[in-house]
């Protein structure tokens, strides 16, 4: 029985899940052993959060709700870290991010 | 080594002094091995080397550029990006074709986004695509140092576009022609270029002085030569500053006759360095760039995104977009017909579009939708008989009605024609077009029977030939009598030596390369139509 954890967070940074935020998200996801996925709807489709190409294809813009799902030993920590990154607006000042 | 003087032909004016850089392999197309395993290894190797290039560049740069490179590295390091390409290679495709197709498909997805941030990232993917393709075809990553004088047999347009010209530099080709696609790009970007310099140039090295306007090159110059070159360069730069100073003002002749000056756009990247207020609009958008260097034809969304961006750039000024003008010297794999005995007299321009309606209709739909975002006009190339215009119009109306029925926002654009076939010029009143644009390069080559790609007859292809001027005068007179717009969008419009004759022939609208905008406005100021002759000479 694998350990699956889900959560969601609102994208509030100016540019949404854009180039720089996507790179940060995938780097963070890759630091966990668990599989990490994201979706714009609670029912999916679920996207591999460790693939920058797939994450960029989601084209999630500001105001979207990002659902996070992880499966594996460190699933809870992975979901908490991803949600925290989103809530921290990917550590970007919005004025700065607008150039990205 | 002793100083050597080389005389070629001018293809783009300007002075440059720099180190010679030889083009690797003359920029030829890559020859696929035909073996899936070797193609996969070649692709894998090229991706690895591109990754190493990006990482070493990232170490040297900071700020936004470093972020862009980190993003590119993240994408390139993701197997998801290359998976479709490796699948295609396993199925028998060549490495370059497979990579190009996979990336073009990914790029279309970005261009289709309504979000400008995502749309803009398509440029990063295009850069990734070209970086890997360059390594695949060159064998070595042929990186041209900034400010270099690039020499070679010939240069493909994709190579030109891959070079950073901001630091100056020049192009000197053994063969080539001033009317080739790459020469057009060089003039647009203001890069000095000399063609027909002879085979010896290919093995040149050391330092070179290039005078683009004179079409001359000096290899390993003596100090005295360098001094005189430098003083001529200063005179030229003063003239450029003078041209830049007249940019913001509308163009008018000495006697006060207003002349509309539009720009020709061969690549949307050129618009970044042009202020829309410096021109009266865009007289010609060449759409061939959308179809070049890609493994597949561009879809409706990709085309719409580009047309919309250009229409919005113009801020309400007219934007004339020419439907695909493939064929002739602009072949497109999978679309144009190979092996025609004389491609310039073959299936090109509107002839090809009417023969391939499934491709043409995609472009028409994208243009109808782009019309919502600016004053878009649609122009058909190589029209020879009125039936071609009517057949295109019928398709445009059908696609318009279908899009409206599907609930899409569209605007029916004015439909005009290029006048470049001599028979069309002389019978211009038989064509029910909303506007006419004289393509002086093709009209001149067809009227003088002197091919634009053949250096030996270049002197005969003269737009000042009375026979060519007579046709231009005839079309201008028809426009004045009928109240329909007539413009000219060939190189002649930006040539200070030809402009007086064009205005005297009755033309009042020219469309020129962005780099020629200031020079053209300056030349127009020197012309006095009231005295019956320009005094520009």
What's the domain count of chain A? Answer: 1
Strand fraction of chain A equals 15-25%
Give Rg of chain A in angstroms.
12 Å
**Global structural class of chain A:** alpha+beta
- Into how many domains do the coordinates of chain B divide? 3
What Rg of chain B, in angstroms, do the CA atoms define?
24 Å
CATH superfamily of chain A: HPr-like
Task: Find the CATH topology of the largest domain in chain B.
Answer: TIM Barrel
Cα distance spanning the termini of chain A: 42 Å
From the N-terminal CA to the C-terminal CA of chain B, the straight-line distance is 40 Å
The number of helical segments of chain A is: 4
Shape of chain A: globular
**Class derived from helix and strand content of chain B:** alpha/beta
CATH architecture of chain A: 2-Layer Sandwich
Largest sheet descriptor of chain B: 9 strands, mixed
The strands making up the biggest β-sheet of chain A line up spatially as 1-4-2-3
Structure, described:
- The complex is a heterodimer of chains A (100) and B (537).
- Chain A has 4 helices and 4 strands, in the order βαββαβαα.
- Chain A is of the alpha+beta class and 100 residues long.
- Chain A has one domain: 2-Layer Sandwich (Histidine-containing Protein, Chain: A).
- Chain A has a 4-stranded antiparallel beta sheet, covered by helices on one side.
- In chain A, a hairpin with a 7-residue loop joins β2 and β3 (47-48).
- Residues 94-100 of chain A have low confidence and may be disordered.
- Chain B has 537 residues and is an alpha/beta fold.
- Chain B has helices at residues 36-60, 63-76, 79-90, 95-111, 116-120, 122-138, 157-162, 181-189, 223-246, 300-313, 350-355, 357-370, 386-405, 422-426, 440-448, 466-482, 499-504, 517-525; strands at residues 4-7, 9-12, 15-22, 149-152, 170-173, 193-195, 207-211, 216-219, 251-252, 258-265, 282-285, 318-322, 375-380, 415-419, 435-438, 485-488, 509-512.
- Chain B folds into 3 domains: 4-23 and 142-225, Phosphohistidine domain (Glucose Oxidase, domain 1, 3-Layer(bba) Sandwich), CATH 3.50.30; 36-138, Enzyme I, Chain A, domain 2, CATH 1.10.274; 241-525, Phosphoenolpyruvate-binding domains (TIM Barrel), CATH 3.20.20.60.
- The two termini of chain B are 40 Å apart.
- In chain B, β7 (207-211) and β8 form a beta hairpin.
- In chain B, the strands form 2 sheets. In chain B, strands 9, 10, 11, 12, 13, 14, 15, 16 and 17 form a 9-stranded mixed beta sheet that branches. An 8-stranded mixed beta sheet of chain B has the order 1-8-7-3-4-5-6-2.
- The model of chain B is unreliable at 533-537 (pLDDT under 50).
- Chain B is built from 18 helices and 17 strands.
- The longest helix of chain B is centred in the first third of the chain and has 25 residues, at 36-60.
- In chain B, α1 packs antiparallel against α2 (63-76), α9 packs across α18 (517-525) and α12 crosses α13.
- The A-B interface holds A 15-16, 18-20, 22-23, 26-27, 48, 51-54, 56-57, 59, 61, 99-100 and B 64, 67-68, 70-71, 74-75, 78, 80-81, 106, 109-110, 113, 115, 117-118, 121, 124.
